[in-house]
Design goal:
- The protein is mostly helical and about 130 residues long.
- The protein is about 65% helix and about 0% strand.
- The protein contains 7 helices and no strands.
- The longest helix has 19 residues, at about 60-75.
Length: about 130
């Protein structure tokens, strides 16, 4: 009996998938993401890279790529910084004259302790 090598159908497609996996691997895409993207086992990209003689990626490279993606995502979703309105000096002086404490004035006027103190200092010099 003669042993024949059987070719499986779709060999070109599989070769294209392998090339895409290797391209993603060399581009620094995380192995888990490559596996999900191409619907293969989680260890297959690493095994395929080893078979093709690619050097093993260090964790620092993968961590740096992940950190860059996280930073980009956070920058896109970051809320606009809040700009506090200055404390009205007259109102701060009026409330302070009634005997209300600095922290309470800040809470009532939605000003920081530092802003209330600055308003009091401005009121004393005026």
């Amino acid at each position: 009996m003669i042993n024949r090598v059987r070719r499986k159908p779709g060999g070109e497609v599989r070769q294209q998938i392998r090339e895409a996996i290797l391209a993603d691997y060399t581009a620094g895409v995380p192995v888990g993401e490559i596996a999900q993207r191409h619907n293969v086992s989680g260890s297959y990209p690493t095994i395929l890279a080893r078979r093709h003689g690619l050097t093993r990626r260090s964790n620092e490279v993968t961590k740096a790529i992940k950190a860059a993606k996280i930073a980009k995502r956070e920058a896109e979703n970051a809320p606009a910084p809040k700009v506090a309105a200055p404390c009205p000096v007259n109102e701060v002086l009026r409330l302070s004259a009634k005997g209300i404490g600095i922290s309470a004035i800040g809470a009532l006027l939605r000003c920081s302790y530092r802003d209330v103190m600055a308003a009091l200092d401005m009121g004393e010099t005026a």
